[in-house]
């Protein structure tokens, strides 16, 4: 799916690369907070989801729907992830792309 990153200070890094303009984020630093969002086509509708953690320090994650944010406010505090190491946006996107492909293979 289309993955986009948003940093807590609301600047954005586009997954496509090179479209974000001058304020595009190239590198994420230790202790930066990220929200990971994807867009999926479900029954011909574009639905947005954020990756959310089951609890503090818990590795189990689920998708928090954010398409209906106007009517069903998403619990965004569980969608904030704090980075333990600095890395480039591209490296993070490659990691996410790899996990997605592995999961679909079984």
UniProtKB/TrEMBL annotation:
Domain Inositol 1,4,5-trisphosphate/ryanodine receptor positions: 24-99
Keyword Transferase: no
GO biological process: release of sequestered calcium ion into cytosol by sarcoplasmic reticulum; striated muscle contraction
TM spans (from-to): none
A GO cellular-component term linked to this record: sarcoplasmic reticulum membrane
MF (Gene Ontology): ryanodine-sensitive calcium-release channel activity
Keyword Disulfide bond: no
Keyword line: Receptor
Gene3D superfamilies: 2.80.10.50
Chain residue ranges for the region called Disordered: 1-24
Lineage: superkingdom: Eukaryota
Annotated InterPro entries: Ins145_P3_rcpt (IPR014821), Ryanodine_IP3_receptor (IPR015925)
Protein name (database record): Ryanodine receptor 3
């Amino acid at each position: 799916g289309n993955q986009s990153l948003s940093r807590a200070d609301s600047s954005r890094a586009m997954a496509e690369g090179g479209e974000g303009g001058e304020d595009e984020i190239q590198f994420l630093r230790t202790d930066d907070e990220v929200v990971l969002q994807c867009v999926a086509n479900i029954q011909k509708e574009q639905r947005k989801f954020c990756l959310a953690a089951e609890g503090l320090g818990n590795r189990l994650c689920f998708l928090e729907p954010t398409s209906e944010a106007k009517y069903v406010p998403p619990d965004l505090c569980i969608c904030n992830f704090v980075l333990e190491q600095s890395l480039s946006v591209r490296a993070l996107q490659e990691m996410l792309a790899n996990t997605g492909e592995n999961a679909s293979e079984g």
